[in-house]
Specification:
This protein is of the alpha+beta class. It has eight helices and six strands; from the N terminus they run H-H-H-E-E-H-H-H-E-H-E-E-H-E. The chain is elongated, with a radius of gyration of 26 Å.
Length: 233
């Protein structure tokens, strides 16, 4: 009995430790999923799995033997989706963020379930592979992969005087590429404002090492530009 209780404590400790490491990774990257959230989810999922499995051994009998030892743990997988949905954000520029954090919430629950069910090796291997996938592989692919993987998206909103100099912005953007890549216009929208001016909305694909401020001053120097907003997506 004492050995069994020590095993339960070990399971809870491992689940908390894995959740802690995942939370530290997210918090260091200033993501909407923090240290406390991951730790709580992993530990609570492990605890509920232990309760689910042990309830089967405690209450199942020859008369009542159709209990599912993982029924309670199965509800964690579906229920954790509500928390995951809470960290998915859609900003006013139609950019969706928080998908990785939402996936890690689900992963923290999965690791807690695996540890609570006694699959220590599988949970450890899964944890290492996940951390390797989100921290090492992306940087490795960027280094050895095609140049298109070393780019980032930039949103540009410019309010302009109504004239024929709209093309000047396009030319300035195309000539403003640095030595490690070229700026590409992915989307362009031109709108007339009620004040008689023109609103230009652009989505650019810029080299990763090009500062957003460089793009800002590149466009700001055009005389027709009244106001300008440049955002790194």
């Amino acid at each position: 009995m004492i050995l069994l209780q020590l095993e339960f404590l070990l399971q809870l400790f491992l689940a908390s430790l894995f959740g802690l490491f995942m939370g530290i990774d997210r918090q260091m990257k200033h993501k909407p999923l923090g240290l406390k959230t991951c730790t709580i989810i992993a530990t609570a999922s492990c605890l509920l799995t232990i309760v689910s499995v042990q309830s089967f051994h405690t209450f199942a009998s020859s008369v009542y033997s159709n209990m599912d030892p993982m029924r309670l743990a199965a509800q964690i997988v579906s229920g954790i989706g509500f928390i995951g949905a809470g960290v998915i954000l859609r900003r006013n520029n139609d950019v969706i963020s928080g998908l990785t954090s939402a996936a890690l919430i689900w992963t923290a629950a999965g690791l807690g379930i695996a540890i609570g069910a006694g699959f220590y090796l599988e949970a450890s291997a899964g944890f290492l592979l996940i951390m390797f996938s989100i921290n090492i592989i992306p940087n490795l692919i960027k280094r050895i992969g095609p140049a298109s993987l070393r780019t980032r998206d930039v949103s540009v909103k410019a309010l302009m005087h109504p004239n024929q100099r709209m093309t000047d912005i396009i030319k300035a953007i195309e000539s403003g590429s640095n030595g490690n890549g070229q700026i590409h216009i992915r989307h362009m929208k031109i709108t007339d404002t009620p004040e008689g001016k023109q609103q230009l909305d652009l989505k650019l694909n810029a080299p990763e090492d090009q500062y957003t401020s460089e793009i800002y001053y590149l466009i700001k120097k055009i005389d027709a530009v009244i106001t300008l907003e440049v955002e790194h997506l």
